[in-house]
Amino acid sequence: MPYLTLSEVESLARAAHAAQTDKAGRPYAEHLAAVAEGVRARGGSDEQIAAAWLHDAVEDDALSREWLDAAALPQPVKEMVLAVTKVKGEDVRTYARRILATPGALLVKESDLAHNADPARLAVLDEPTRDRLTEKYLRMRRLLDLPTDGQAQAQAQAQTQTQG
Predict the structure, then answer these.
(1) Which residue in 132, 98, 99, 97 sits closest to 117, CA to CA?
(2) Is 104 left (phi over 0), alpha (psi -120 to 50) or beta?
(3) pTM confidence score
(4) Distance between CA atoms of 162 and 121, rounded to whole angstroms?
(5) Would you call 8 exposed, middle or buried from its count of C-beta atoms within 10 A (0-12, 13-18, 19+)?
(6) pLDDT tens digits, one per residue of 99-108
């Protein structure tokens, strides 16, 4: 069975999340596109880019686990999507270990965190939400042994913007 192309994966992800918005009320597909572009800009493979498009699909119930299991996708894509899918009630350290143990998943999560923590994106949120999310993303970066200083994050964001 031939695998879905990146264009087909993008179309599926956009359709699956079509009715969804982010915390700022923006179309959720903008976040998916930014994460996929962040993976591409960081040198990610087509499999990692596909996983980026689908990274929240199962977690958000936009697509079912059964759909993912049966999808015409390479097994590494499925494994990356499941690695970055948060499980209700799961300890954040267990979640981080799963990401680190799954080849390719760290780059997907790094791009997701970079977009989630984008100061321009956070600026439209109320201060308590902004502070809570900033701390949440910082904690995850630490658990994943990713750079946590503002300069490293700014450099990653600038790289994503200049290579787009």
Answers:
(1) 132
(2) left
(3) 0.89
(4) 18
(5) middle
(6) 999 999 999 9
